[in-house]
Amino acid sequence: MENQAEFKLPLLGKSMKLHPLPGQDPQREYGVIWDACPQPSDGFGYVFEFTGKRRGRFLAWLTANGAAYACDGPLAYIPEGEPNLLLSRLPNNEDFGQVQARRGARVPLQTVSRFARSRTGTFAFEQPSCDIGPYAGSSLGLRTFAAVGYLAFVHIPSAAQTPVLTGLAADVMGDLLRPPLPDALDMLVHHVRSAQPGAVSGFERYAARLLEEAGASMIRPLAARTALEAGRLSSTGLAWLRFDDSALSAGERQLVLAVESALNRLLLVQEAVEGFPGTAAPYAGFDEGFCSQQDWRCIIDIASGAAEAVQRSERENPLRQMHGVHAARGGEWDVRTRFAQACETMRLPFRMEYRFDADAAGGTVAVECSVPQPEAFPSTRWDGVRGAWEDVRMLRGWAASAYAMRLAALLAAAAFGAGVGIARAYVTVRPGGLDAPVGMSLRFDRISFMSDVLPLIAEGALGADRNACDPAAVLALLNPADCSAAFSDDGFFGVAQPLDIGLESRRSPLWEDDRALPGPLSELLQADRVCELDVLHDEDADLTARVSVAMEDAESSPLASIVLLEEIAAQAGERESKRAAEGGSSDGRVPLYCANPCTRMLVRLSEADVKTRYSKASDAAFAAQSSLSRLYAQVGDVTRALEVAEACRSLAPTSLPGYLDGVSVLMDEGRFAEAEELARRALRIASDRRDSSYLRYRLAYSLWKQDRFDLALACYTSVTADGGDMAGHAEIEMADLMEQMGMREHLSNDAAAATLHENGIPAAPTSEVMGCLAQAALGLADAGILRASAFPAYAVAQLASDDALIVVARSLESGLDVA
């Protein structure tokens, strides 16, 4: 444009000169002209470089909507293509939006700033990506605003050949979480450290600072040795680094968690700046100091959601109803699921591991949680008053303790939000992990917490900057009803004595629990006392161990193994008869074997009379019989193999071994129709996806051999869709089947599911199975029979793939004890 002819403003033409901008050539002067020459309709004039008092060159045409098109003379028509500057307003709020700019014909528009429009119609830049000098914070008319934007973000950087920082913080975070993790981390740090001054944003610089402090450069050798992947949690949207705990030392684990925390704090900073009025957050617009301030704000403000957490008790609990079964309002299941959901949705800057217990009737919730070590906290902090970085390494212990106290307040709020009947909340923190010694144990009482502590949180006292590294001040504000804590010289926790909670006596061994079952549970489970639900206590453990020994040489010496197993089965039967005689068992109880506790909950699905009551069958006897079935088939005695398999099914009607043994024998004999019928029966009592998937895999082969190709293909397809242990085997067999059928295109998952449904083959545990398990889980929990309820609770949780339900099941099983 240097060569374009100068334009002389007519006498009546209007003009306005602008203040110099940072980076502007001091020999140049810019402004806006209007009503001085032709322009398209709805025009607002031209950005103009003055070369004299009333002469100069055209730079860009301005529209009445705030766009700017580069030009070298007056325009008659609106140019084609995108403008060089564009104001994009929010669709639901026209007073806020973003400024987008581009410097080349083939370069896309990118966000360079936000804007806010006042009630009087003026505009102001918010978090611009470059220094706009005298116009920072000013309220400007649209003509001036657009002209300054064009000059600052397009023309002046182009003339000086300097980069304009554009883009979104979300894009930076997306790259950081892209695999492989070590490359993503190192590339960000390298990009920042090797860039020319002004070529990277404050957000990127702060990201590099956090990652270096966390030790991100040491992640690569760990990832080379063991799987280490980054993902986002669906419950919170935060980062979660997946790794094998057993493959890392304690120090390596802390390193991984420090990097995870750095990523999450960056995500929280990103969201914090996106929370300002406007659309997406241009990372270029936030300097490193501002990011540091937001980071600390995310750390010290974690208790701000306490009031909302308490109010959760007034809302519906989506997990109070499972598979058509409703738990009691305010009962154990309701309280535990409410608390677990609150914890699972907490958006925290550091990973929190936790376990909890509850006594809904007694009004108590107790939780133990991990808190981060001081080294996980920032070592520097931006001092906005002095405009300099402050070394806060000596304060990190104090900051970590204060953080733990705020976390305790949030957990107490979640406990009180688990139900209006919860009057006491115990929070015990263990620095570094749940297996670490106790650092602090607090008790909160509901009324004092709600009347005294919540108002202080609401007014921001807990999150005040002055209390960021002052645990004594935070503890005084919390004023717990009881406290046990120990502190070291660096301000972090020492070793404290946990408070006595009094929930330990609620779980006796199931086989010793002589409590009567409530009527509905007694009818469902066909048992009168809790101890009748036990299936894990093995009174013949010595004989059970001998079964494994007997099978060691079964492949080479099956007859010898058969002799040993028959002897074991006989001995187990004798012991069983003796125990029955000594116990005076003459009430007609039927021996029942259950492969796991969940199958005990399914007895209602067997064909026995609902009044039937059961005694626990010998584990050793069943193991011996099941092994004998396979060995009889191996030596060619098919009749005895099938008879023993049938006996196993009679002894264990809701467990799979007898069915699987029978299916294997029948398929080996080519009796595929009978194998199909038995596999279908087994599917009706399968209680988890793995069992269901395996049965459909066996069923597929039996259907294939009966020339029922379409149904066999649907079964194989459903197994591969499950992605479990049998998926690879199913894929191989399915390829052979498709070749025989002359098919090239795979059957869709939806079509396979429809075919299975039409033919009465369930693709997952049936609704009847899940209904029984849900009734048992919720009913036993609400009856206070915690340990027994844990087993069906795990099954329900795994089917739902719900982390909160898994935590609930763990709490039912072991409470605050290590499982």
UniProtKB/TrEMBL annotation:
Checking InterPro entries in the record gives: TPR-like_helical_dom_sf
The entry's protein name is Uncharacterized protein
Q: Look up and give the organism this protein is from.
A: Enteroscipio rubneri
The organism's taxonomic lineage, starting at the top: Bacteria, Bacillati, Actinomycetota, Coriobacteriia, Eggerthellales
